[in-house]
UniProtKB/TrEMBL annotation:
It comes from Massilia cellulosiltytica. InterPro entries: PEP_COase, PEP_COase_bac/pln-type, PEP_COase_Lys_AS, PEPCASE_His_AS, Pyrv/PenolPyrv_kinase-like_dom. The active site is at H191, K624. Gene3D superfamilies: Phosphoenolpyruvate/pyruvate domain (1.20.1440.90). The lineage of its organism: Bacteria, Pseudomonadati, Pseudomonadota, Betaproteobacteria, Burkholderiales. The gene is ppc. This is Phosphoenolpyruvate carboxylase.
Length: 971
C-alpha cells in the first residue's frame, strides 16, 4: 500500500546525509542519555573549522569494521554481501524517495531464507548497539573538552543553576536550607520495555570501557591489545543470545536493577553531593558546611513492591527485594572498608589520633602486635567485623572475606555512619584530611544516602483490590454485608467509624480468600521490613486508579489492620499516596485531596509526616485516555489546583511524576520537564519514575549517569528557588495563554477520542498494523501486556501501547490531535491574531515551549513511509485505507501547524546534534522495520493448523529488539 495522495509524505529530508557503509557504520544513537534530546545539555561547537564529530566518526568506523570482520568470520562473505546490499537499497529508498528502491527492498527481503533473515536482523541490530556506545563515549569526550576549555557553565548544570540563583539574590544559607529539606528521588521501575538482556549490557559496558581507553596515550602494543579485546567483546555479543527464552521473573528484574547500582549509583550519587558542595563554595566563596547531614537525593524502587496488575509480586518478592538490596549495599560497604584498611596506615609513632578513634581501635577484635601503632587499621577491622555480622543478620549469605574475629552487629545504619565519622574526624584533626578524600568521605556519604536498605521500596496496588479485600473483611466481621454497593458517602462514614474502633476486623479464626490473605500479608511484611532494615526501607503506599476519598481511607484502614497505622499514635508508617491517572481523575484530584486533608484523622497523620503529603500523577494512562495535548494540559491544571488546595491547608506538596520513556508517556528531557512545571509545584520535593530501557540509556555508563543525576539537582534548584511569583507581566500573559490552551485541549481530546475510542474498527487496525501481538509474546517483563484478557484499548497497558506505536515509527501518542486542535482554533477567529498569540505562548511560556519541543522531537523520529508498510499488514483494505488516511492527514496537519507556530519547516532546528544523528541513523534502522513487516507477514499468514516456524518467530522478536535498541526511548 502506498501513501494516500497528498497526505503523509515524510518531511523533506536534507540532501546528502552522511552515508557510511556497513564497514564504517553510522550513528544510530537516540540521544536520550544525558537528556541529549535537550539542546541545553549539548557541548558547544568549537571555533573555526574543527570537526568536533571527527573522533565520533573514527570510533564508529572502527566498531563497524570490527563488526564487519566478525560478521564475515561467523556468517560468511555471502551473508555480509546481503547485508550490505540491503543497506545500500534502504539508504537509496530513504534518501531519494526512490519507489524503485522500495520495490527492490521488498523483493530482496522476501527472498531471504529464514537463516539469512535472522542474521541480517542481528547485524543491523548490533550496528545500532555499537553506534550508541560510540556516541555515548563522544558525549563524555565533548563534555570533558568543554570543561577543560573553561567555558561558561552549561544551562543544565548545577553551576549554571547556582549562578542564576546568586544573581537573583538567593543567599547561600537559603540554598543550603533548601537542600537540607529537599527530597529528589529517581524511582526505578520494571515495566516491560527493557529489551536488552543483562548479558548484552555487560558486554556493551566492556566495549564502552575499551573504546574510552583508546583516548588515552597507548603504546603500539597496548593499542593492538585494545583492538584485539574490542573484537573479542563484539564477537561475544554476536555469539550471545539476544532474546530471553523464558519470561522474566520479578527476581530477574530486581537483579537487573541492582546492576545499575554497582555500575553507577553507589559511587556516582555520593560524587554528585561532592560536586554540589564544591559548586556552592565556588559560587558563594564559602564552604557548604551546612550540608553534612543532608540526604536530598535518594533512590527509590518499585521492583518487587509494585503489584498493580502483576500477580507475581507478593510478600515474598518484597522480602527478596530488600534482602538483595541490603546484600548489594553491604557488599559495597565491606569492599570499601577492606580497601580503607589497606589505605589508612597512619602510625601513632608519627601522628596523633583522636581519643574516640583510639577507643574504636581498642574495641576491635584485632589484637595483632604488628598493628598496635596503626589505630585506623585496627578500627576498620572492627568496623568490618560489625558490618559482616550485620549483613548476616539481614540476610547476606556470601561474605567473601572472613572477618578477623566476632563483633556485635550494628543496631542501625546511623551507628555505622557514626563510626566512619570517628575516623574522618580524627584524620581532620591530625593533619590527615587529605587521606579521607580518596575513599572515606565518599563512604560516609554513601552510608547516609543508602543506609542498610539501599533504596526505598514503594508498595503499589489498584484501588479495586483494596475494595475487594475490605468488602470481605467487613462481611466476615458482620459489619457490612455489601460494602462495594455502598455510596461514596456511606463508604467514607463506615471507614472513618472503623478507623476509630480499637478492635480489628481480621481474626485468625476465620478463613479468607487468597487475595485477602495475600494483601494483608504484604502489609505485615512491610512492617517487619521497616523494623529490620530501617524506616526508609518502605515508606510509601501508592494507590492506582484513585477516584474517590474512600480509596485513600481504605488503605489507611488496611494499614490499621496490619499495624502500619496506629490510631493511638496518629501515625502511619507508609504514606498513603493517591495516583491520579485518567483525565477525569486528574480533573478531580484537587477536590479529592482537599477533602482528604480536611478529615481530622488524616490531618493528624499529615502532622506526623511533617505537614507533607505526596501525590502521584500518571502520564502514561492520561495520555492513552485523552491524547498528548490533553494529557499535558490536564496534568498542568491538576498541579495548579493542587498547589492552591495544599497552600490553603498549610501542607507541603510533594509531586511524584509517573513519567515513561516516550514523550507520549511523559518522557523527554527531565531538566526541561522540571523547569516547565507550574510555579509552586517544585519546592524541593520531587520524585519521578525512571522506566524500562531509559534506565539503561541514562545509567549504564557511570559518567553519563552522574550527569543525569546532576541534571535533576540543577533543575530542582532552579525551579524551586528562582523568584517568579511577582512577575506581573507573566501573570498577565498566563491569563491570556491558559484559556487558549484549554480550548486547544478540548479540540485535541475530541480528535483523539474520536479516532482511538469511537472509530469502528480502530482496535482491529491497531492490532494488525502494529506488532502489539508479537510484543505481548516477548519475555520483556514479569507483568502481562494487558490488565485483562481482552483486545480493548481501555484494558491495554499504556506501556505496550506506546511501545507498539514506536515500533511502527508512527509514535502516534506523542502528537495526534495537535493539528486538528490548532487548525480548528485558527479557523474560528482572526487567524493572524491567533497565530501571533500561539507564537507568543511558544516564546514566553515554558510549559507550551516544552510541549512543542517534545512534539518536534517525536515528529522528527516518526516516518509515515515506514508506517505505511505496517499498514499493509491490515487485511481489510477498506479499514486500512480509511484509518491510515485519517492518521496521515492529521500527521500532515500537525506538521503544518507546528511549522506555523515555530516559524520553521525544519525539525529540531534548536538541536542540531540530534537532528544530524536522526538523519544519519534512520537509513540504518529502516531495514529492521522492513524486515519486521516481512517476518510478521510470514508469521500471520500461517493457518491455524500450521505449526509456527520458530525461526520466523525468533526473527520477529529480534527485529523488535533491534528497533527498540535503535530508538532507545520506545517504552
Amino acid at each position: 500500500m502506498g501513501l494516500p495522495a497528498g497526505h503523509g509524505k515524510p518531511p523533506a529530508r536534507p540532501a546528502g546525509p552522511l552515508v557510511i557503509p556497513i564497514r564504517c557504520i553510522c550513528s544510530f544513537n537516540n540521544s536520550t542519555m544525558v537528556d541529549m534530546d535537550n539542546p541545553a545539555a549539548l557541548s558547544p561547537q568549537p571555533p573555526g573549522n574543527v570537526d568536533k564529530d571527527a573522533p565520533l566518526k573514527e570510533d564508529i568506523r572502527l566498531l563497524g569494521r570490527l563488526l564487519g570482520d566478525v560478521l564475515r568470520d561467523q556468517e560468511g562473505e555471502a551473508v555480509f554481501d546481503i547485508v550490505e546490499t540491503i543497506r545500500q537499497t534502504a539508504v537509496r529508498f530513504r534518501r531519494e524517495d526512490d519507489e524503485q528502491a522500495g520495490t527492490e527492498l521488498k523483493t530482496l527481503l522476501a527472498k531471504l531464507s529464514r537463516e539469512e533473515t535472522n542474521s541480517v536482523v542481528r547485524a543491523f541490530s548490533y550496528f545500532s548497539h555499537l553506534a550508541n556506545i560510540a556516541e555515548d563515549q563522544h558525549h563524555i569526550r565533548r563534555r570533558r573538552a568543554h570543561l577543560l576549555a573553561g567555558s561558561k557553565p552549561q544551562p543544565s548544570s548545577v553551576a549554571y543553576a547556582l549562578t542564576r540563583l546568586k544573581d537573583a539574590g538567593v543567599a547561600q544559607d537559603t540554598v543550603e536550607g533548601f537542600l537540607r529539606e529537599a527530597l529528589i528521588a529517581p524511582v526505578l521501575t520494571a515495566h516491560p520495555t527493557e529489551v536488552q538482556r543483562k548479558s548484552t549490557l555487560d558486554a556493551e559496558h566492556d566495549i564502552a570501557r575499551l573504546l574510552a581507553e583508546r583516548d588515552l596515550p597507548l603504546t603500539p602494543k597496548e593499542r593492538a591489545r585494545n583492538l584485539q579485546l574490542l573484537q573479542a567483546r563484539i564477537a561475544t555479543l554476536w555469539q550471545t543470545r539476544m532474546l530471553r527464552y523464558e519470561k522474566l521473573t520479578v527476581a530477574d528484574e530486581i537483579e537487573n536493577a541492582l546492576s545499575y547500582y554497582r555500575t553507577t549509583f553507589l559511587r556516582e550519587l555520593p560524587a554528585v553531593y561532592d560536586d554540589v558542595e564544591e559548586e556552592i563554595a565556588a559560587q558563594y566563596g564559602n564552604a557548604a558546611d551546612g550540608l553534612d547531614d543532608a540526604a536530598y537525593m535518594q533512590m527509590g524502587s518499585w521492583i518487587g513492591g509494585d503489584r498493580d496488575g502483576n500477580p507475581n509480586v507478593n510478600a515474598a518478592t518484597m522480602q527478596r527485594a530488600l534482602v538483595r538490596h541490603s546484600t548489594t549495599i553491604f557488599d559495597f560497604y565491606l569492599d570499601e572498608v577492606h580497601a580503607l584498611g589497606a589505605e589508612l596506615s597512619p602510625s601513632t609513632l608519627l601522628v596523633s589520633a583522636s581519643p574516640a578513634l583510639l577507643a574504636l581501635a581498642d574495641a576491635s577484635p584485632d589484637h595483632s602486635p604488628h598493628r598496635s601503632d596503626e589505630p585506623y587499621r585496627r578500627a576498620l577491622i572492627g568496623v568490618y567485623a560489625r558490618l559482616a555480622s550485620t549483613a548476616r543478620e539481614l540476610g547476606a549469605t556470601n561474605i567473601l572475606r572472613k572477618e578477623v574475629g566476632h563483633a556485635d552487629a550494628y543496631r542501625d545504619a546511623s551507628e555505622f555512619r557514626a563510626e566512619l565519622q570517628v575516623l574522618a574526624d580524627s584524620l581532620n584533626e591530625n593533619h590527615g584530611a587529605i587521606l579521607a578524600v580518596p575513599r572515606l568521605n565518599g563512604l560516609v556519604r554513601a552510608a547516609r544516602i543508602f543506609g542498610f536498605h539501599l533504596a526505598s521500596l514503594d508498595m503499589r496496588q489498584s484501588s479495586d483490590v483494596h475494595e475487594k479485600v475490605l468488602a470481605e473483611l467487613f462481611a466476615r466481621a458482620g459489619v457490612e454485608g455489601d460494602y462495594a454497593a455502598l455510596s461514596e458517602d456511606a463508604k467514607v462514614r463506615l471507614l472513618l467509624d472503623e478507623l476509630a474502633q480499637p478492635r480489628l476486623l481480621y481474626t485468625p479464626y476465620e478463613s479468607y480468600s487468597d487475595i485477602t490473605n495475600s494483601e494483608l500479608q504484604i502489609l505485615r511484611t512491610a512492617r517487619e521490613i521497616r523494623k529490620r532494615y530501617g524506616t526508609r526501607a518502605i515508606r510509601n503506599y501508592i494507590i492506582s486508579h484513585t477516584e474517590e476519598v474512600s480509596d485513600l481511607l481504605e488503605v489507611l484502614l488496611l494499614q490499621k489492620e496490619t499495624g502500619l497505622f496506629r490510631p493511638s499514635e496518629k501515625k502511619s508508617d507508609a504514606m498513603v499516596i493517591p495516583l491520579f491517572e485518567t483525565i477525569p481523575d486528574l480533573q478531580r484530584a484537587a477536590e479529592i485531596m482537599g477533602t482528604w486533608m480536611a478529615l481530622p484523622i488524616v490531618a493528624d497523620v499529615i502532622e506526623h509526616q511533617g505537614r507533607l503529603q505526596e501525590v502521584m500523577l500518571g502520564y502514561s494512562d492520561s495520555n492513552k485516555d485523552g491524547g498528548f495535548l490533553t494529557s499535558n494540559w490536564e496534568l498542568y491544571q491538576a498541579e495548579l489546583k493542587l498547589v492552591k488546595v495544599f497552600a490553603d491547608a498549610n501542607v507541603k506538596l510533594r509531586l511524584f511524576h509517573g513519567r515513561g520513556g516516550t514523550v507520549g508517556r511523559g518522557g523527554g528531557p527531565s531538566y526541561d520537564a522540571i523547569l516547565a512545571q507550574p510555579p509552586g509545584t517544585v519546592n524541593g520535593q520531587i520524585r519521578l519514575t525512571e522506566q524500562g530501557e531509559i534506565i539503561s540509556s541514562k545509567f549504564s555508563n557511570p559518567e553519563i549517569g552522574r550527569r543525569n543525576l546532576e541534571l535533576l539537582v540543577a533543575a530542582t534548584l532552579e525551579a524551586g528557588l528562582m523568584p517568579h511569583g511577582a512577575d506581573r507581566e507573566q501573570i498577565e500573559r498566563l491569563s491570556r495563554f491558559e484559556p487558549v490552551m484549554a480550548e486547544l485541549s478540548q479540540r485535541a481530546y475530541k480528535a483523539y477520542r474520536d479516532l482511538v475510542y469511537e472509530t469502528p474498527g480502530f482496535t482491529d487496525y491497531f492490532f494488525a498494523a502494529t506488532p502489539i501481538a508479537e510484543i505481548a509474546e516477548l519475555n520483556l517483563g514479569s507483568r502481562p501486556a494487558s490488565r485483562k484478557s481482552t483486545r480493548r484499548i481501555e484494558d491495554l497497558r499504556a506501556i505496550p501501547w506506546g511501545f507498539s506505536w514506536g515500533q511502527c515509527r508512527l509514535l502516534l501518542p506523542g502528537w495526534f490531535g495537535f493539528g486538528a486542535a490548532v487548525s480548528g482554533w485558527l479557523a474560528e477567529g482572526d487567524r493572524d491574531q491567533r497565530l501571533a498569540l500561539l507564537r507568543e505562548m511558544a516564546q514566553h511560556w515554558p510549559f507550551f515551549a516544552t510541549l512543542l519541543s517534545n512534539m518536534d522531537m517525536v515528529l522528527a523520529k516518526s516516518d509515515l513511509a515506514i508506517a505505511s508498510r505496517y499498514a499493509e499488514l491490515v487485511p481489510d483494505a477498506d479499514l486500512r485505507e480509511r484509518i491510515f488516511k485519517r492518521i496521515a492527514a492529521e500527521y500532515a496537519e500537525t506538521l503544518h501547524c507546528l511549522t506555523l507556530v515555530t516559524g520553521t519547516e525544519e525539525r529540531l532546528v534548536n538541536n542540531p546534534l540530534l537532528a544530524r544523528s536522526i538523519q544519519n541513523r534512520f537509513a540504518y534502522l529502516d531495514p529492521l522495520n522492513h524486515l519486521q513487516v516481512e517476518l510478521i507477514q510470514r508469521h500471520r499468514a500461517l493457518s491455524a493448523e500450521e505449526e509456527v516456524d520458530e525461526r520466523v518467530h525468533r526473527g520477529i522478536h529480534l527485529s523488535i529488539n533491534g528497533v527498540a535498541a535503535g530508538l532507545r526511548n520506545t517504552g
